[in-house]
Amino acid sequence: MTDYEAVIGLEIHAQLKTESKLFCGCDASYGAEPNANACPVCLGHPGALPVLNERAVEFAALLGMAIESRVNPVSIFARKNYFYPDLPKGYQISQFDKPICTGGRIALTRADGVAREIGVTRAHMEEDAGKSIHDRSDATLVDVNRCGVPLIEIVSEPDLRTAEEARLYVEKIRQIVRYLRICDGNMEEGSLRCDANVSVRPQGETELGVKTEIKNMNSFKSVERAVEFEIERQIDLIEDGGEVTQQTLLWDADRNVAVPMRGKESAHDYRYFPEPDLPPVALSEERLAEIRTRLPELPDAKRERFVSDYGLPDYDADVLSQSRDVAEYFERVANASGDAKAASNWTMGEVAREIRERKIEIAEFLLSPERLAEIIALVKDNVVSATAAKEVFVAALEEDKSPKTIVEERNLGQISDASELDEMIDQILKEHTVAVEEYLAGKEKAIGFLVGQAMRLSRGKANPQLLNKSLRQKLESMK
Ligand code: ADP
Ligand code: ZN
Ligand code: MG
Hints:
- The structure is a single chain.
- The protein is α+β, with helices and mostly antiparallel strands.
- The chain has three domains: 4-287, no CATH class; 299-406, no CATH class; 418-477, Arc Repressor Mutant, subunit A (Orthogonal Bundle).
- The chain contains 16 helices and 17 strands.
- The chain has helices at 40-43, 54-66, 163-179, 220-239, 285-292, 299-310, 314-320, 324-337, 340-358, 369-380, 386-398, 403-409, 418-431, 433-440, 446-457, 464-477, and strands at 4-15, 70-71, 74-75, 77-81, 91-95, 101-102, 105-109, 115-127, 131-133, 141-143, 150-156, 192-202, 212-217, 247-252, 257-263, 273-274, 281-282.
- A hairpin with a 4-residue loop joins strand 14 and strand 15 (257-263).
- Helix 8 (324-337) packs across helix 10, helix 13 crosses helix 15 and helix 13 crosses helix 16.
- It binds adenosine-5'-diphosphate, zinc ion (ZN) and magnesium ion.
- Adenosine-5'-diphosphate (ADP) is lined by residues 7-11, 155-158, 197-199, 208-209, 211, 267.
- Residues 21, 24, 26, 38-39, 41-42, 148 line the site of zinc ion (ZN).
């Protein structure tokens, strides 16, 4: 039996988070009443002239810098002509032979630990089309709000080899655009969309096989499943003596199958030509240098720094660097408390749990990093126990009060007072004579039981180190 190798190239469309559309002043945000955001420019009325949104250009350049593309000093908009109900203009303004970004690379690490580097062919700016809605009436409805919304299309080299790599690649792109704050990366709302080109070839073959293109995957899981499905379909087809034909497929996530949509147009069918109403996009050296100053530290660099600067375990650094907001929260807690590991534990533990349960983003999280750092300090200084600290944390989310005040008001302070502890220990020793005798007879383990009882008596508030020490001293003195 022949061994096959899959070849995958991805085209990702990321919606750039600008306030207005790419060539007009219409609101570009998601979720408005259908057809509320439209004007003669984005509808292509005769005589209406497009004006380029400079912010979108900066976002595109920033992406190029982040993925080590060459950001071209001059790029050109072109008309891509096709007829479709959701495209009122009859053409889409895109970039063709002179895109804003050329080349680039994305680093991935597979679950088996293998590091991969995926080439990026190009990234270009274009406007989005409208949306056809088929499931709300007998007729097909069209919503043009999305017409003219700025997109960056990122085209990979055919360097991906497995469905897992394809998913990781999309995840990485999403992470980067979110770090750059140029796209919210929401696959369900369509602000990040991915088309997968898939072919297979016998292992060792260097020519590319015939590819198909799958569209309509709106989650990472769908990307992985769709690619997996298509690889298997093509191999089975070839094994059965058939041939792969070039076509476009639609992923059906409910049924987990890809269904044929149409024979694929080739590029010349779009009759690309330079957009006559827009001048070339020029980026001076000074402007590029200025944009570069806004490039934030990227996820991989952050992860490595969290290990080298804060001494975090790889696992923590990986989890914390997933989102820029989470990473920045952690870092503020770490710096304010001086205890990076505690900051990491709290951020990955209690903070993450609250955010999950409240279904909010960390940006909306009410407890400031500085207050969390105060809670960490209270534990470190033995003012509160670890258990009580969690209670302080929950209370601090409800009331806008300092952790110290909460401890006082709720009487959550740890008991470190020697005479108070002694009193409790005496009571426990009196009540549990059997355990005491066992200890005196050499059964070391009995002390655990006695500590537990004293802890309970203190309602969890006894300072565990002091309690342990006093109890042991007392028992030893009875020997
Ligand atoms: P098209 O003209 O169909 O749009 P492109 O050459 O522009 O094709 O490539 C589109 C995407 O498909 C790119 O991501 C590219 O890496 C990928 N691709 C091209 N050829 C193949 C192939 N034979 N198998 C898998 N992916 C491919
Ligand atoms: Zn408009
Ligand atoms: Mg193409």
